[in-house]
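User: Could you write out the 3D structure of this protein bound to calcium ion? I've included everything you need below.
Assistant: Certainly. Input first, then the structure.
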Amino acid sequence: MRILIVEDEAKVARALQEGLEGEHYEVAVARTGEEAFFRASSEVFDLILLDVMLPGRSGLEVLATLRKRGSAAPVLILTARDSIEDRVVGLDAGADDYLVKPFAFPELLARIRALVRRGRTDQVLRLKAADLDMDLVTRKVARGGRPLDLTGREFELLEYLLRHHGQVVSREMLARDVWRETARATPLDNVIDVHIARLRKKVDADFATRLIQTVRGVGFLLKEGNL
Ligand code: CA
């Protein structure tokens, strides 16, 4: 398994490289868009980890050119927290998935595993569970064909639950990956619970089947039917 990391910040690149090598991936690092073109066109990679914020040509330009030249490697783009636009443009330009910076390393590993498993045949443009549909490009969510009006945070929360469909998601995971708080303070649990309650109202209140389940003492689970 060979991974190309495209990242201009030396510290970030080194941390990613060490982390991934620790998981027995073979890793190469490109520090600029030009270097990324060169490596990706002369070597074979199973996955490209592409930072959007690069000096000179942005990661998105790099991506568009790679795809135009026929590169079929799965691409996971790393975008800034507030740049929803980049995520959407990135998926349009041929990225297979995105991860918002700063992210936790286990989440990166999970995304890499999912992408490698799936290959390039199926972009993650839509997430689906039962009659719930999320479009990551238009950022529209519908249940049973009826549009749901979600806030940005509710969207991210539901996206996370959908990506972990059928798995229990703890408050620690939500604090880390959705709120991106590393030092978890007790008050955040209440914030999470309030957001879950609001989301549940929008997703489940008008439907016979519940999708967002509470697992007492553990966390939450997106799953059809009752526990
Ligand atoms: Ca960067």
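The chain has a mean pLDDT of 89.
User: Perfect, thank you.
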